[in-house]
Amino acid sequence: MNKIKTAVDKLRSCETVSDDELLLMLGAEGEDMEYLTEAARLTREENYGNDIFIRGLIEVSSYCKNDCLYCGIRRSNRAADRYRLTKDEILACADAGYDLGFRTFVLQGGEDAYYTDELLCDTVRTVKERYPDCAVTLSLGERSRESYAALKAAGADRYLLRHETADALHYSSLHPRELTLENRMRCLRDLKSLGFQTGCGFMVGSPGQELSHLIKDIRFIEAFKPHMVGIGPFIPHKDTPFRHEAAGSVSMTLRCLAIVRLILPQVLLPATTALGSIEEGGRERGILAGANVVMPNLSPADVRSKYLLYNNKLATGVESAEGIRSLDEKMRAIGCRIVTARGDHISIQK
Ligand code: SAH
User: Fold this and answer.
1) Closest-CA residue to 255 (of 30, 3, 2)
2) Contact 206, 234 (CB under 8 A)
3) CA within 20 to 30 Å of 167's CA: 88, 140, 215, 341, which one?
4) Model confidence over 77-116: pLDDT tens digits?
């Protein structure tokens, strides 16, 4: 029996695998890759059936105090066109999203001091009062434990904060000096211990990434047991220091998605916008490799093109909430369907 299939079978039966076996799976091609993604797909079906959860993504601000080398809205990008949404504008996005069937709103943005704890807590509270049947997810970067605690008390349910890479040296090559892996991990631990459904994740093919880093990412996820994991290919942005770097590969992204699904069978795993942006049908391939979440864009149309993390980011068509029906058709074509349930992690579903 071939070693890759043996490793996949081990994960399928909840056994641990060695680093060498992870390496083999990360290199799976052809029939072996099909075997890996098929196993992940079956694992997804056993836990969540063919239901694909949707999250309405509201990109609240393109202002950011950070200077992450990969990111198009980094502070030193003078060419970036900046905007921020007011509380009322965020609420208007949620109103429109609710009517379209969204029951989770994700407020994502750069680290923008405009959003004080007071303003954010007030916004979260208002969304939750207006839509008690909805979940609110935040993705607003690193904050203090006190700030996270206040946001939790205001009613936020989930928090997404990708760890980006679990290797400290690699982390420091992607970020300015003031950002450390240590603090990122502190944030993730705080979020989880405060009771958030917590999401970490990483980019595939970020500059300088080696297979040994991906193994560290997978080991971190295995140990941390997040509720959600965001994985997408790195895509260069023309106004960043990484403008000439190669994009991450779709196949490697799919292998990572499949491995994470097998290691955490109940994880909420999005087929990310980056995966859909880099290749036509990329998101469908993500679903077929074990993903079970998609996050269409609910941001106001006039700001969508300004939240440009990377070049050629999908902003219209199926990425817009108006395209939800066509998204459902695409999901049906691969045997799945969009559902409007809140889509909590199985461990906390009532
Ligand atoms: N400020 C928030 C939100 C960041 S944007 C935070 O720090 O969590 C969400 C994710 O987009 C990031 O975590 C990063 O992994 C991804 N991203 C940023 N630039 C990217 C690029 N050039 N290619 C692919 N993904 C990118």
Assistant:
1) 30
2) yes
3) 140
4) 999 999 999 999 999 999 999 999 999 999 999 999 999 9
- 169: CA distance to ligand 1 center in Å? 18
Contact 270, 291 (CB under 8 A): yes
* Ligand 1 atom at minimal distance to the Cα of residue 242: 22
Beta strands per DSSP E along 82-241? 104-109, 135-139, 158-160, 197-204, 228-233
| Any atom of ligand 1 within 6 Å of the Cβ of 328 | no
Tokens 């992870």 map to which residue?
A: 22
Q: Quick check: pTM over 0.90?
A: yes
Measure 309 CA to ligand 1 centroid, in angstroms.
7
- Residue 235 Cα to ligand 1 midpoint, Å, equals 10
pLDDT in tens, 56-87: 999 999 999 999 999 999 999 999 999 999 99
Q: What domains are there in the chain, each with its CATH number? A: 49-339 (3.20.20.70)
